[in-house]
Amino acid sequence: MYILKSVTRNLPASSFTKKNWQHIRGLKLADPQFNISRRVDVILGADVLKHFMRKGLEVVAEGPMAQETALGWVLYGGTQSDDNICTYTITLDELVKRFWEVEEVPSRQFLTPDEQACEEYYAETTTRDETGRYIVRLPFKSNLIRPLGDSRFTASLRLRFQDKRLASDPGKREEYCRFMQEYLTLGHMKQVESSPFDKYPTNYYLPHHAVVKETSTTTKLRVVFDASAKTSSGNSLNDLLMVGPRTQQDLVQILIRFRMRPVALIGDIEKMYRQILVHPEDT
Predict the structure, then answer these.
(1) 91-100 pLDDT, tens per residue?
(2) Containing domain of residue 183, as a range?
(3) How many structural domains comprise the chain?
(4) Cα 239 to Cα 231: distance, rounded to the nearest angstrom
(5) Residue 68: which residues within 8 A CB-CB, separation 6 or more?
(6) In this predicted model, what pLDDT tens digit does every residue of 211-251 receive, in sequence order?
(7) 3-state DSSP percent of the chain in helix, strand and coil, to 5
(8) CA of residue 245 relative to chain centroid, distance
(9) Among residues 227, 222, 221, 206, which one has the least CA distance to residue 159?
(10) At what angle do helices 170-185 and 152-166 cross, to 10 degrees?
């Protein structure tokens, strides 16, 4: 006698829906749940099978045959089931290949035609002054000529709304005034008088609003300028400018550098973007 953990795989290979077979109606089946995939308990050899067989036999053109046995009627043969079984096999090398494709750092950056045009424009027009500071031109789209429209009204409306909001918080208002005064003191902006050129198509008043970050250890209140604000023509300054490629490095590259040397140096460039000057013709 041989005892096995399992004599074979589950039978049938997959469960299927019973059909209304006329030839098995009224028969006492040995396994009424023959359509459900389950484990096999016993295998009977051909030498003992003859002792279980009976004379009853039902054969049809479509569907399983029915054989009478001492245990009841048993079904065997094809069922012509319409149930679909989908299997998908993936090898280990394919899994490893996918892992490396996801983790791989691109060796070069591919630019779109618009990004390439913006890069070439900066390379042709960017200069440096006597102190080494960069001077850049605004990259206006050459193939798109649309009026900028009046922006003074929107900027004034935003300013009045902000004044009203800060009036209820003297502390934040003081920080806001200090921030803007620093802009003036450092020469990063200057006061202009109203003039007939306020509605000139190339003039653009930048709306701004104060952003508070309580967790900051340096500047809890910063001013954010909105170049995406629409003008009276429905266009904004950003709508008329080309968009260059992303200049920040991937986080993976930054983290890898921390593992390349025993000592890592980090620093913060104060007012980094304001160290870049805009060409006088674009201001």
Answers:
(1) 777 777 776 6
(2) 141-241
(3) 3
(4) 11
(5) 53, 54, 55, 56, 57
(6) 888 877 777 888 999 999 998 888 899 988 998 888 777 78
(7) 30, 15, 55
(8) 18
(9) 206
(10) 140
**SS3 assignment, position 125:** helix
The H or E element spanning position 255 is helix 251-257
DSSP string, 154-207: HHHHHHHHHHHHHTT-HHHHHHHHHHHHHHHHTTS-------GGGG-TT-----
Q: What is the pTM of this model?
A: 0.55
In this structure, the answer to whether residues 229 and 280 fall within a common structural domain is: no
Please report, to the nearest 10 degrees, the dihedral formed by the alpha carbons of residues 214, 220, 221, 222 taken in order: -120
Are the C-beta atoms of residues 75 and 61 closer than 8 Å to each other?
Answer: no
Asked whether the bond before 12 is cis by omega within 30 degrees of 0, the reply is yes
Calpha distance 67→63 (Å, rounded): 13
Claim to verify: residue 73 and residue 19 sit in the same structural domain: yes
